[in-house]
Amino acid sequence: MMLIKTLRHFRPLVLPLIGITAFLFLDACQPSTTEPIASGYDYQPLEKGNYWIYEVTEQQFALNGSSTTQTYQLRETITHSYADAANADPTGSATFRVERHRRLNDSQAWQPDSVSSIRITDSQLIKTENNRSYVKLVFPLIDLFQWNGNAFNTDGEDLYQLKNTAKPFSVLSKPFPETATIVQQNDSTLVSQDKRLEIYARGVGLIYKEKVQLQFCSSTPSCVGKAQIDYGIRQYFRLRAYGK
Question: What percentage of the chain exceeds 70 in pLDDT?
């Protein structure tokens, strides 16, 4: 009888403890949503239907002294994912097909341009273009970290470096609060310039890309150091719209 009275006395405490225990158990069973953010995977969302539209400006310089400038729009769309036997990943990560379409301006219809693929393998974001694979990002994102962007192709070593992690950047007057800059190359001499970089925004993907590869005049002493372009290219991608 005394034991029953004792249990009745503690009953109001037992129920809250049970409730707290159940809450903790259910909370532990919830899938983690912080891991992709902590690792930086959300700097390049990969999901069927995602698209990005870029304003592209391209200048080409020829040896004969002529140059051309063109502007156009480029749309990249993830159409589907698949298991790639050639790039089997034990983690089960898929390869995503990216289709490119191109047009001169808003009044024109999109025309097919090219196809590429993108995947995350062993904490590396790998993009394959024109049958060449490049390591675009390495996770987690660590400022000043370096890696070989050509690790999966036959080209020579090309060291990329991550800079300005979680820093703001604006493209076409649109601000992006958290971005990461990948400097692929930034080399300039009296006879050449090679500047390549990409900027990714959290929750968005690639928002800006710059490629400047120029060969300067070096045939006569009078032109050396004058940045007189013999041939090369300047190319700029600026994100205009994105979504799903």
Answer: 81
